[in-house]
Amino acid sequence: MTVSRRTLLQAVTTAGVAGAVGLGQIPLAAPAAAASQPGDVVGKVTVGYQGWFACAGDGAPINGWWHWAQNWGQTPSATNKAIVAWPDVRDYPATYRTAFGDLGNGQRASLFSSYDQSTVDVQFRWMKQYGIDTAALQRFNPTGGEGPTRDAMAAKVRSAAESQGVKFYVMYDVSDWTTMQADIKADWTNKMRAHTASSAYARQNGKPAVCIWGFGFNDAQRPFAPDACLDVVNWFKAQGCYVIGGVPTWWRTGDRDSRPGFTGVYRAFDMLSPWMVGRIGTLADADNFYNVATVPDLAECSAHGIDYQPCVLPGGVGDRQRAHGDFMWRQFYNMGRAGVPSVYISMFDEYNEGNQIAKTAESQAWVPAGSGFLALDEDGTACSSDYYLRLTGDGGRMLKGQIALTATRPTPPTVNNGDTAAPTAPGSVRVTGLTATTVALAWTASTDNVGVTSYRLRRITGSTATPIGTADANATSFTVSGLSASTSYTFDAQALDAAGNVSQPSNRVTATTTTGPATDNLALNRPTTESGHTQTYSSANAVDGNPGTYWESINGAFPQWLQVDLGAATQVGRLVLALPPADAWATRAQTIAVQGSSDGASFSTLRSATACTFNPASGNSVTLTLPGGTTARHLRLVFTANTGWPAGQISEFRVYAT
């Protein structure tokens, strides 16, 4: 488990905040030009993105309550928590119930998983909506047990950035990474460099951006010598990268939180981003740092042709630092009057330290009872859950000259969106029909003060609710397809309105699918082979019986194929192919041909290439029938196109006799 940066850096804080001057006594500094022209980093607002929250049952390789709980193997509760602020989860399609007490409004206390693609999509949609340009994906030592989950998160961030129109880059945190000097090069070469091919990967001066956070810090977590650090910086530059340094606050003076002897390392970076969390906590602190750090730091960077990206932080919720936005705005104002062109927001989703700008509980009505968490209204001023996202958007506009430089915060803590009332829960959810692979559901319509816009259907597994499809506002029925025969399933439904308000879940209903003819899946847990796969998405995922795991071929290299060995020549009549049922898997068409073989070497075409449409609203599955009398031991799917992703993708490859 990664120790927070703030915990180990607070010891050096007091050395930097003494002697704060009054707000009216600070002279304006002359604006300084950036070393580089605006790009995806220079002249932009970047947020630090942890993406490190997982929940039991979400399918993540780490298989636990990653970063939500002190003991990841146990459900988070008031006595097993690793966060100090509670997120507002109303926008997330999938959440996971915890052992915290109910929220103050009586709703269940549930948390999101960063491993759900739908979660990352929502968070990057917020970035786009609120004017955030770029996300720096935090990447800690990937060689240990957290590695596979972090690898998968990089792919999910890439997907979300591409779909939402936000830039991203990889930010390595070298904390506690003892073999960093060799490992970081191998990780970039073998894994992370591939993501620079994305249209969403941030580039500066025509080069892919990469950040290394932690060189030069004067603590036991980052004991690296200057020569080793300089070697890494120069190696990345030799790879054609624009290299950002997340450096100590006192990098320029080489004391306090900075080790001596690192000047050469600091000056080797293309951009410097000094750390600030734990250094300041009041408006007076922010103004003092304007004098003792921001202005001289910017001058030093300008003198050496280095770009400058200082931190702006909202303040710790639990530390009562935020002053309903005045603390953060003072930092934006100080950056603006100093002429700083680029800022790094610390952080987007840091609920562990309470410095997050992502949507947060706005009052005790949205906080678990007995948890001890404070909400955004802790100082008596009501703030909407998205307040710090809105504040960040306005701060970015001010730094870009789109609104006037002002010391007075222009962002109101609350906004009147005209509709804060959630619809009533769908009533009397019931089963109206069953087959071996489908369950038909119906319900009584919800009501809303403005109007229901859609219904969300969910499958319940333990404490996990997974979205499986949507129905429009006028519908009161839905058929869940792609199910297994003789299997018990539990479902519920929610109603949504145009303002994004989500109802409480309906009653839950359980149904068992029927036993039909030849219902045994002949491919279940059989050996597989493949043309190749990306990340951890191997071919075995397609026959494991879990619709949440999937095979994904090598990207951008059609044709690709997936093959199953039935063990002996077998009569086969139909194939059922599926993608994960979550709404995040948007409708896509994959062009697929089916081939058969008796020996695994010589294949014949059983079904010519066909465009197969996978639609989450109808179960995200397709059925392919084969000619009567077809017999094969080896069945191969050949993919030549996919409108949703440049690779073949299958979560379930099921084979039936008839």
Describe what this molecule looks like in 3D.
This protein is α/β, with parallel strands linked by helices and 658 residues long. Helix content is 18%, strand content 25%. The strands form 6 sheets. Strands 1, 4, 5, 6, 7, 8, 9, 10, 11 and 12 form a 10-stranded mixed sheet that branches. Strands 3-2-16-15-18-19 form a 6-stranded antiparallel sheet, with no helix packed on it. α6 links the parallel β7 (207-213) and β8 (242-247). α3 (117-129) packs across α4 (147-164) and α9 runs parallel beside α10 (387-399). The longest helix has 21 residues, at 283-303.
Number of helices: 10
- Give the biggest beta sheet: 10 strands, mixed
Termini gap = 50 Å
Overall form: globular
Q: Roughly how much helix do the residues carry, as a percent range?
A: 10-25%
The overall pLDDT average reads 90
- Which range does the strand content fall in? 25-35%
Gyration radius, rounded: 27 Å
What structural category characterises the helix and strand content?
A: alpha/beta
* Low-pLDDT segments, ≥5 res: 6-32
For the secondary structure, the number of strands is 29
